[in-house]
């Protein structure tokens, strides 16, 4: 039951409108041949960005609306991919979390790899009421901490969600920040604090 | 006049936070609306060919097209863009398309380069290595100028890329699959940002290509003069830019991926009336 509801929700949220206008069939191997021809002679770290892992492959194939069985397998696999803070603490510094939420820096060709990547949460989410430059690709997280509370369980849940959202929802739009090594464990703790800390502007 | 108008637009844009989309017909109530209106006003002001700096590239492209050049010292006036040698009017509106002489589906950029190689005897390696002008008011590169000129000669024409040849159909299907292909350190695909109607990233409105008016307004307005980069930009550059945002390595210039995506998006834009170069954020 829960599974069906979740799948229906996934389909409703993510199903592209026009898949019904069926295009000619194209094989995954053909797609990968085109990709290989279009990004050539890359160093290993860059080739790794072009290549897909199993989850990306399945989410692409099912256009982010995998059938329930596939979705379940993705969630199970991604759930295992979460690394936890060594000190067992989930709440970092909300001020640092805020700075990261505002920053779209990092990972783009030409970006200085020595500078910290930004979480860029505002690209997709509304957060603090004072920041009007927010995107709408994700749900509003305005007052999120007031809703969730600051219990250990809430902290852990939010940490896991940011570390690897696909451990909760298969083919989530949200980047798997921790899993992909895009944000560090410390940065994810800061993001949790930005969302949950009662002093954070998100909860004002 | 040209300079003043451009500067006024730049000012309008920086007031708006430089985060706006000027993609046109996408009305939506958002904090960006006031700035959108300001931008609309300045766009109207500079929409005439005398003040859109993109037209400098059109003029340069026209000169490059008709000038005898290359090792064979001939012009591009016999180049066949699909409508017959030297036939330019409306040709861009039917591209990308299949060309029997190469056995490939080609977009305007790859076809012009092919003409430069075969007709004029150019070695295009250097052009392919640096196809885009650096941002910040530098003149358009040769190939950008030529595309601007060729595209401009389809103004008033409606996108009518038929995509009926089996190779064209294959490219459209390939483009569609690529649109959903997630990769790199943020797990993005094109669909992440362009998958739903009326979405924004920060304050920038995002075109949704399954919405015909979005697809038409978008595709029929490239090449465009991008004020934020002070440069004329082509669709090849836009795709490179979106892959850059996706944290992908630089996608190959005129690579199969870029042509397949262009074919897919152009098919979606059928019926859009071409007015280029436009002017955008």
TrEMBL record, chain A:
The cross-references to Gene3D superfamilies, in alphabetical order and at most eight, read: Cytochrome c-like domain (1.10.760.10)
Identify the coding gene. Answer: soxX
Q: Which domain of life is it from?
A: Bacteria
Species whose genome carries this gene: Blastochloris sulfoviridis
Going by the UniProt record, its keywords in alphabetical order are: Heme, Iron, Metal-binding, Signal
Organism phylogeny: Bacteria, Pseudomonadati, Pseudomonadota, Alphaproteobacteria, Hyphomicrobiales
SUPFAM superfamilies, alphabetically?
A: Cytochrome c
On whether Repeat is a keyword of this UniProt record, the answer is: no
User: Which residues are in the Cytochrome c domain?
Assistant: 92-199
- InterPro entries from the entry? Cyt_c-like_dom, Cyt_c-like_dom_sf, Thiosulf_SoxX, Thiosulf_SoxX_II
Q: Which GO terms describe its molecular function?
A: electron transfer activity; heme binding; metal ion binding
In Swiss-Prot or TrEMBL terms, this protein is called: Sulfur oxidation c-type cytochrome SoxX
| Signal peptide start and end residues | 1-20
From TrEMBL, chain B:
User: According to the UniProt record, what class of enzyme is this?
Assistant: transferase
Q: What cofactor does this one take? A: heme
Q: Which GO terms of the cellular component aspect does the record hold?
A: cytochrome complex; periplasmic space
One Gene Ontology term of the biological-process aspect is: sulfur oxidation
Which keywords appear in this protein's UniProt record, sorted alphabetically?
Electron transport, Heme, Iron, Metal-binding, Periplasm, Signal, Transferase, Transport
Record note on cofactor: Binds 2 heme groups per subunit.
Q: Which residues bind heme c 2?
A: 190, 193-194, 242
| SUPFAM superfamilies for the chain | Cytochrome c (SSF46626)
Identify the catalytic residues. 242
Recorded GO terms, molecular function? electron transfer activity; heme binding; metal ion binding; oxidoreductase activity, acting on a sulfur group of donors, cytochrome as acceptor; transferase activity
* Assembly mode: Heterodimer of SoxA and SoxX.
What is the name listed in the Swiss-Prot or TrEMBL entry for this protein?
A: SoxAX cytochrome complex subunit A
Organism (species): Blastochloris sulfoviridis
């Amino acid at each position: 039951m829960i599974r069906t509801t979740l799948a229906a929700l996934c389909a409703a949220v993510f199903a592209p409108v026009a898949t019904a206008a069926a295009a000619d069939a194209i094989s995954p191997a053909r797609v990968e041949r085109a990709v290989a021809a279009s990004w050539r002679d890359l160093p290993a770290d860059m080739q790794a960005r072009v290549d897909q892992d199993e989850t990306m492959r399945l989410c692409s194939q099912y256009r982010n609306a995998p059938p329930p069985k596939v979705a379940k397998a993705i969630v199970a696999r991604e759930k295992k991919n979460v690394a936890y803070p060594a000190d067992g603490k989930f709440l970092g510094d909300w001020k640092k979390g805020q700075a990261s939420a505002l920053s779209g820096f990092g990972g783009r060709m030409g970006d200085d790899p020595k500078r910290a990547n930004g979480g860029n949460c505002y690209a997709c989410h509304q957060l603090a009421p004072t920041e009007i430059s927010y995107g709408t690709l994700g749900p509003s997280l305005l007052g999120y901490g007031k809703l969730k509370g600051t219990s250990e369980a809430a902290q852990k849940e939010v940490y896991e969600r940011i570390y690897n959202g696909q451990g909760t929802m298969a083919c989530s739009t949200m980047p798997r920040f921790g899993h992909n090594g895009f944000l560090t464990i410390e940065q994810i703790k800061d993001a949790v604090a930005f969302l949950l800390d009662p002093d954070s502007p998100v909860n004002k | 006049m040209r300079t003043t108008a451009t500067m006024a637009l730049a000012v309008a844009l920086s007031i708006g936070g430089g985060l706006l989309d000027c993609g046109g017909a996408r009305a939506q109530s958002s904090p960006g609306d006031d700035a959108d209106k300001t931008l609309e006003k300045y766009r109207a002001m500079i929409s005439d060919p005398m003040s859109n700096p993109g037209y400098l590239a059109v003029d340069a492209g026209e000169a490059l097209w008709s000038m005898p050049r290359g090792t064979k010292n001939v012009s591009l006036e016999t180049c066949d863009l699909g409508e017959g040698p030297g036939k330019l009017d409306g040709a861009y509106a039917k591209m990308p398309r299949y060309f029997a002489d190469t056995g490939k589906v080609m977009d305007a950029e790859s076809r012009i380069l092919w003409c430069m190689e075969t007709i004029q005897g150019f070695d295009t390696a250097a052009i392919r290595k640096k196809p885009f002008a650096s941002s910040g008011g530098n003149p358009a590169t040769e190939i950008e100028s030529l595309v601007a000129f060729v595209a401009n000669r389809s103004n008033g024409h409606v996108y009518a890329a038929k995509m009926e040849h089996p190779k064209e159909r294959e490219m459209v299907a390939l483009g569609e699959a690529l649109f959903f292909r997630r990769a790199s350190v943020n797990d993005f695909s094109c669909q992440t940002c362009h998958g739903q109607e009326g979405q924004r990233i920060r304050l920038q409105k995002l075109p949704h290509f399954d919405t015909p008016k979005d697809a038409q307004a978008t595709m029929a307005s490239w090449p465009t003069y991008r004020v934020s980069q002070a440069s004329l930009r082509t669709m090849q550059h836009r795709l490179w830019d979106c892959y850059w945002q996706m944290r992908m390595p630089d996608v190959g210039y005129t690579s199969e991926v870029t042509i397949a995506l262009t074919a897919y998006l152009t098919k979606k834009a059928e019926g859009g009336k071409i007015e280029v170069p436009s002017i955008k954020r």
